[in-house]
Amino acid sequence: MAPIGVLTALDQARTQYYHFKAIVIAGMGLFTDSYDLFCIAPVMKIVGRVYYSDGGARPGVTPPAVVSATVGVALLGAVIGNVVFGALGDRVGRRRVYGACLLLMVCSSVGSGFSVCRTRRCALASLCFFRFLLGVGVGGDYPLSATIMSEFANRRTRGAFIAAVFSMQGFGILASSAVTMAVAAAFDHYTGYPAPLDTPECADLAWRIILMAGAVPAALTYYWRMSMPETARYTALVERDVVKATNDIGRVLADLDLGAVAEEEVAAALSRPPPPPRPSYGLLSRRFVRQHGRDLFACAAAWFLLDIPYYSSTLFQSQIYRPLFPAPGLINAFQEAFNVAKFQAVIAVASTIPGYFVAVLLIDRVGRRRLQMAGFLLMAVFLFALAGPYDGYWRDHGAHAGYIVLYSLTFFSANLGPNTTTFILPAELFPARFRSTCHGLSGAAGKLGALVGSIGFLWASQQKDGAAAGHLPGIGMMYALFVLGGICLLGLALTYVFTPETMMRSLEENESDRAQTQVGDGGSDTEAAKSPASMASSHLSMSPILPARVSV
């Protein structure tokens, strides 16, 4: 069968203004995700002063269990959001649920600051509830943003475009730090620079403003999201309306010569009867497991393994910045939050954002697989460099420049490699009718790893004989860092064995290879493709969710 012209045109399209507009639109969910993740650390400093001050000689501190709860509920919500919205993206279309995700994020960000009362129990319960909803929205945005960007992009720069969407996380961290510093400085000045143990009543308003400010950039892009057309690949391959796909993409991408393509598609559709339904298979079928199970395992397992050390390293920041700033008993609530946010901004500018930029530059030159392996290896090296001399040297020399450099390089390596590639690969390896679902399952596995890393690390890093107040004894920071380095080496081995390369290949070509592999193994495959062109046509088989139909 002839190739679908609009998909060929998309693969060969030059980079245009709409591609960059789509990066911003799709990146706002990732922006909100990182804003929420990184603003919670300074927010918890203020919350501790407001709700846990006993009037004694020491400032109030949020208990570890409460910190774990506020982090954990958001990650748990992200697990659910990845699975639910990922499936909905394949069932009813990417565009139809895309706006709903953003609206949920905006409303829950605002709700995080508007608790129904001001008592400690009620305020924190309300905060956890809305952070859970925020996690659902953020989790749902992962598969939709990656899938939409992959289906709009051309095959030459598809990796860079998806990586650019993911790099919005770095700017979310920077925005979180900037907003926190601005709010803390303003309240500190307005209240006349209160004494360390004097926490003004208005501090209860400061942390709410910080949380609610994350909704503003996302809300500004809501109109753009709602005006986006459905992706041509979903319309043509899942809804089986090639003509509508051609017309939709022609409205946003110029210089594709789609007029002739549309005429050819209409003529071809009118000149032949509707094709008979082809045998289809579902997500839980044996055929899916044979054809795509290995790729799904590779994507989900790598993301799970990555997020354990990545989120643990985020929490490890408290061990880094503590020697660099005055003790909490010497500064007030606003100054403490300001210092935490300032350190986060320095790490973002020095390592996180540069890592994303290098990934954008290299992803379509080096390849996803090599970059992921290199990133895991470098993370392991730097974590081992932190772990080896930790008890003998680093613990007492936390302000040493080498200590901070090694920590920054860990973040740089993660964002250069697996933190970016695990977001890209699930958006490229699976058929159009499974793409969003499989990306959601992979992302959910990653957030489960984040839960393990963020909550488990709080326990594991505590010393056996000297755990901090509110913590259970753990294995110690040195051994915890060794475990994280070992997990990175496991991610390297898994990538080497299971992860395929997708660089410079069309999405239909990637699927074609999976189908041909099954045929070569002797499986029956009436839908197998012999080429990328025929594979594009084979996508017109009956969806496991939608009824077969052809529109002209």
TrEMBL record:
Residue ranges of coiled coil: none
Major facilitator superfamily (MFS) profile domain boundaries: 22-503
Gene3D superfamilies named in the record: MFS general substrate transporter like domains (1.20.1250.20)
Gene Ontology MF, one: symporter activity
GO cellular component: membrane
Protein name: H(+)/Pi cotransporter
Example GO BP: phosphate ion transport
Membrane topology value: Multi-pass membrane protein
Main location: membrane
Location of this chain's protein in the cell: Membrane
UniProt record similarity statement: Belongs to the major facilitator superfamily. Phosphate:H(+) symporter (TC 2.A.1.9) family.
Domain of life the protein comes from: Eukaryota
Residue segments, region Disordered: 507-540
Segments passing through the bilayer: 22-44, 64-85, 161-185, 205-224, 296-316, 343-363, 375-394, 400-417, 438-459, 479-498
InterPro entries in alphabetical order: MFS_dom, MFS_sugar_transport-like, MFS_trans_sf, Sugar_transporter_CS
Keywords, in A-Z order: Membrane, Phosphate transport, Symport, Transmembrane, Transmembrane helix, Transport
Organism taxonomic ancestry: Eukaryota, Viridiplantae, Streptophyta, Embryophyta, Tracheophyta
